[in-house]
Amino acid sequence: MVNATEFRSAVKGWLEENFPLALKGQTAMLLELASVQNNLEGDILLWRQNLAQAGYGAPTWPKAYGGAGLTHPQAKILAEEMKRVGAFNLIPALAGMGVTMVGPTVLEYGTDDQKARHLPGIASGTIRWCLGLSEPSAGSDLASLTTKAVADGDNWLLNGQKTWTSGADISQWCGALVRTDSSAKKRDGISFLMLPMDQAEIKTRPIKLIAGASPFCETFFDDAKASKDDLLGKPNEGWSVIKRLLQHERQSQTSASRTGSAREAFQDTAKRYVGVDAQGRLDDADLRIRLANHLMDATAHSLTVRRIREEARGKVEVSAAASILKNTATQVAQIKSELTLELMGYQGLGWQGDSFNEEELDNVRSWLSGKAMSIYGGSYEVQKNIISKNILGLPENTQKG
Amino acid sequence: MAALTEEQTMIRDQARSWLTEQYPVQKFREMRDSQAEFAFTPDTWAGMAEMGWPGILVPEQYGGLGLGYLTFGVVLEEIGRQLTASPLFASAFVGASAVMLAGNDQQKQQWLPAIADGSQIVTLASDEGPRHVPAAISMQASRNSGGFELNGNKTFVLEGMAASALVVAARTAGDAGDQQGISLFILAADTDGISRHALATMDSRGYANISFDKVSIPADALLGELDQGYALLEAILDRASAGIAAEMIGTAAQSFDMTLDYLKNREQFGQVIGSFQALGHRAADLYTDKEMARSCMEAALQAIDDNGENIAELCSLSKCKTGDFLHFMSNQLIQIHGGIGMTDEFDAGLYLKRARVLESCYGNQAYHRDRYARLLNF
């Protein structure tokens, strides 16, 4: 294995040859674009192809499945060097739930055939995946789901409704959690099926949210087909597959949201709207202390993310601590939006129109959409159940009625 | 726990087994009930000196171990778990920091080896009123023929009765409230004109009020530059805050462990009470706050060891977050234990009383929240 310095210089060389300079610093644009469509053109298409060819779309995956077989420290170097030249890995956004959740779970539970058929499309950013998990009556209590799959020759036939299927209208494949044994106890009769979205028996309908348009859909299965070869893990043991997949989701929702410069920007915003007294203190003593508290909490969260990584000795693996980090990340983000709304005063209350600037309008949308953070991926309360039972070892209650 | 080095792990394990075997909280209770002269037992302090703990910070050239702040934090945390009484923190952590930061070669030579072997107990005397406001110092240090004359009062001096020497912050210029004009001095605690009065605090730790009446000290008692002591004092207080935060994490972690144990064993309504969701969620909240506070505490000590650029900011963060957590934790220690927690026979009360005192030392949460905002310019 090459050492870190050699690897870094190899990455630098690769970026010089393969990253189209016209895309430099276009992270936000690329992310936005990659989140809504797959048919890329020009430099963007070229960049996706170059990333895919090197296996850098999902760099830690094995080479055989479209990755680059990098260690986590090497992947970190790759990310640092990309950031340094203003490049951005757009493949995770193009693959929907593929790189962050479906792929790692297929790597763990999939057969060789499933890995070979599904992983390269994800790693190259050409196949977008959505997930059919929640149902109208199965939210936090996911195991009460009723979408059914019955065996039919070489296929499973799916019937039922999923909701909150992010990107269902533009995805090529779906990972769906379905009931395959209605007679079993509720967690024991569930399977995880993978099926193509391009069939007349699947219909999707976009969901409009309090913040406006969203990537979410309702998805209806009416005798939709999944191949028998596309059941992930063992039949009726889908619950353990989904628990693992949700850990990967949680892990992707724990990242520190704030950098030093963003923090300064926040204080400046506060001073601009609220004003300062003769000593340079924010001219609202109560808000000032709540802002200080929030910035402390944000720093404590980032320091904890860092500490937990260091304790794992560089191994970035799904850990029990993800539940506390998901909750603290959520609190930090939601309180930041609330404080911003408050400090902007009347200017923070706009919905559209040129009486409000972009920052003000953006905050309203992210304040509203951020309310979902404590609901999705296991709600705030569900995470606390996980902490008390799985981390602290407190027992289940057996009281009746 | 941070990714500890092998040496730190060894020191922690040694501290944990020595303290739990020789000086568990029961010993603290016995000391409290015995009305010990200095609020600690001499054998405790002698045992610590034998293990080299007073020299953890002191550089090797001055007879110490030079192991740094994070390593000392590991020991303080174990001490905080058992409430073990000793002058270790006051002298070997705060006193040593003061001399290391502000002393000249001669002063380091004079004081550090004696701190490291435990023969001198050097403590900081800074606060004068009921609240921690370092710039408010009004104690006078006026020039006289041989050096300086000290007049004024210091309050809530940690291990003030046991101390053999004092680091005193006094005013050589300006008025109370000015940062400019504060100077630091180091002097023997039995210098003529000093009188000490032991405080019976609720946590049974050794605090004293000290008054200075025409205390004459030589010019070479000046620690650091004349009139420029405020920045040094802040740096010493930063370290003191970071260190006491480690002790606080220990006290809180022990409280957490006691509470979790009780949640798993106490039965009511035919159930182990930890199975009730209201209590399970509270335990989850406590655990989350504990992990956040620990990260801040370790980051501050690490920053001091690394001589990082944001030491002040991290030390205020650490003192504030550990203070918030200890406050919440010590109240829940009582609440979750219910009636038994209210009895003196049970240890919860010892931890609750200690908690409030630790929160107040070197600035409470309100002080550090305000300071954090000031450091961040808003």
Features:
heterodimer; A: 401 residues; alpha+beta; Butyryl-Coa Dehydrogenase, subunit A, domain 1; Butyryl-CoA Dehydrogenase, subunit A, domain 3; 3 domains; four-stranded antiparallel sheet; 12% strand; globular; B: 378 residues; Butyryl-CoA Dehydrogenase, subunit A, domain 2; 10 strands
Describe this structure in words.
The complex is a heterodimer of chains A (401) and B (378). Chain A has 3 domains: 91 residues, Acyl-CoA dehydrogenase/oxidase, N-terminal domain (Butyryl-Coa Dehydrogenase, subunit A, domain 1, Orthogonal Bundle); 108 residues, Butyryl-CoA Dehydrogenase, subunit A, domain 2 (Beta Barrel), CATH 2.40.110.10; 139 residues, Up-down Bundle (Butyryl-CoA Dehydrogenase, subunit A, domain 3), CATH 1.20.140.10. Chain A is 45% helix and 12% strand. Chain A contains 13 helices and 8 strands. Chain A has a 4-stranded mixed beta sheet with strand order 1-4-5-8. Chain A has a 4-stranded antiparallel beta sheet with strand order 2-3-7-6, with no helix packed on it. Chain A is globular and about 80 Å long. Chain A starts with a helix and ends in a 10-residue tail after the last helix. In chain B, β2 and β3 form a beta hairpin. In chain B, α7 runs antiparallel to α11 and α9 runs antiparallel to α11. Chain B is 52% helix and 15% strand. By secondary structure, chain B is α+β, with helices and mostly antiparallel strands. The interface between A and B is large, with 46 and 41 residues.
